[in-house]
């Protein structure tokens, strides 16, 4: 059973930084694209960032570009999402995903349980 274990969510104030981490098995880490999506209440799940096992990035949407950075740590079989200068509109449940890659949630077959990020003004 594929497991994606997320950590690092929580409460933050606007302007703060948070880092989300997602750990998985070495097999999944070395053979899939791993990324992050987020879903705010009443909104569709949206792409945040992804990076393949080769290191190639799928870019960032304008809403997070310049503030969020995804990285892979092969020593931990984990992918991290560094979130800087957080905004209230970043409030959402953040999901780790693994799959063939892309910016559509349908491109990913494995999902974490989600971690809440709440940003207050």
Can you summarize this structure?
With 121 residues, the protein is mainly β. Helices cover 5% and strands 46% of the residues. Strands 2, 4, 5, 8, 9 and 10 form a six-stranded mixed β-sheet that branches.
* Share of residues in helices: under 10%
Structural class: mainly beta
Strand content: over 45%
Which of globular, elongated, flat, extended, rod-shaped describes the shape? Answer: globular
* Rg over alpha carbons: 13 Å
Query: What are the segments in which pLDDT stays under 50 over at least 5 consecutive residues?
Result: none
Helix and strand succession?
Answer: EEEHEEEEEEE
Largest sheet: 6 strands, mixed
Task: For the record, give the distance between the C-alpha atoms at the N and C termini, rounded to a whole number.
Answer: 40 Å
Total of DSSP H or I helical runs spanning 4+ residues: 1
Mean pLDDT: 96
> Would you count the extended β strands for me?
10
Please tell me about this protein's structure.
It is a single chain. With 121 residues, this protein is mainly beta. The protein has one helix and ten strands, in the order E-E-E-H-E-E-E-E-E-E-E. Strands 2, 4, 5, 8, 9 and 10 form a six-stranded mixed β-sheet that branches. Strands 1-3-7-6 form a four-stranded antiparallel β-sheet, with no helix packed on it. The N and C termini lie far apart (40 Å).
Primary descriptors:
121 residues, four-stranded antiparallel β-sheet, 1 helix, six-stranded mixed β-sheet, mainly beta, 46% strand
């Amino acid at each position: 059973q594929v497991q994606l274990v997320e950590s690092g969510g929580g409460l933050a104030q606007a302007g703060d930084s948070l880092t989300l981490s997602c750990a998985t098995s070495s097999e999944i880490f070395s053979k899939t694209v791993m990324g992050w999506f987020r879903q705010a209440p009443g909104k569709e799940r949206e792409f945040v960032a992804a990076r393949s096992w080769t290191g190639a990035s799928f870019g960032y949407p304008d809403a997070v570009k310049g503030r969020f950075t995804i990285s892979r740590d092969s020593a931990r079989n984990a992918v991290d999402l560094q979130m800087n200068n957080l905004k209230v509109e970043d409030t959402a449940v953040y999901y780790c995903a693994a799959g063939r890659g892309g910016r559509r949630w349908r491109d990913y077959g494995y999902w974490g349980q989600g971690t809440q990020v709440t940003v207050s003004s």
